[in-house]
Specification:
- This protein has 147 residues and is an alpha+beta fold.
- The protein has one domain: Glutaredoxin, CATH 3.40.30.10.
- Helices cover 27% and strands 31% of the residues.
- It is built from five helices and nine strands.
- The strands form two sheets. It has a seven-stranded mixed sheet. Strands 6-7 form a two-stranded antiparallel ribbon.
- The chain starts with 11 loop residues before the first strand and ends with a helix.
C-alpha cells in the first residue's frame, strides 16, 4: 500500500488525444492524480466538474490535474467535450496505473462483490513524492478536500 511520503509510482498512459503522458512530464510541478470509476456517471461528473470549476485556483497554486479511469479515449473525449473539462484524462484499459496506485480492487454493490476502480486521489509534490492520499472522496467538494 502506498502512503504519504512514498515516491509516487511512475506511469505511462495515453490521454484522450492519444498522446503519451508520463509522471516525469510533471517533474518540478505539483500534480493532482485522481482515479474515478466511469465517465459521465453522476458521482464522477460531480467530481470532474468541481475540479473544473476550481481549475484556475489549482493552476495558481502550482498544481495540474490528471484523471484516470479504465474508459476508452473516445469516452474521455466525449466526457471532456460535454462538460468542458480543462485537464487531461488517461485511458487505463489495461489497469496498469490503477493497480500501481492501488485504485483497482474489490467493491460491493447491492450485496454483490466485484472488482472495479476505487475512487481515490493522490497529491504528488514537485519532487514526485506523495503528499496526500484521499480515499474518502466527497465528489461535490473534492477541491476543498485537496486544498
Amino acid at each position: 500500500m502506498l502512503k504519504v511520503g512514498d515516491k509516487a509510482p511512475d506511469f505511462k498512459g495515453i490521454d484522450q488525444d492519444s498522446k503519451e503522458i508520463n509522471l516525469s512530464d510533471y517533474s518540478g510541478k505539483k500534480l493532482v492524480l485522481y482515479f474515478y470509476p466511469k465517465d459521465s456517471t453522476p458521482g464522477c461528473t460531480s467530481e470532474a466538474c468541481d475540479l473544473r470549476d476550481n481549475y484556475e485556483t489549482f493552476l495558481a497554486k502550482g498544481y495540474d490535474i490528471i484523471g484516470v479511469s479504465a474508459d476508452s479515449e473516445k469516452s474521455h473525449q466525449n466526457f471532456i467535450a460535454k462538460y468542458s473539462l480543462p485537464f487531461k484524462l488517461i485511458s487505463d484499459k489495461e489497469k496498469i496505473i490503477l493497480k500501481a496506485y492501488n485504485a483497482w480492487g474489490e467493491k460491493k454493490m447491492y450485496g454483490k462483490t466485484y472488482e472495479g476502480v476505487l475512487r481515490k486521489t493522490f497529491v504528488i509534490s514537485e519532487k514526485g513524492l506523495i503528499e496526500n492520499i484521499i480515499e474518502k472522496v466527497d465528489t461535490k467538494k473534492h477541491t476543498a478536500q485537496i486544498l
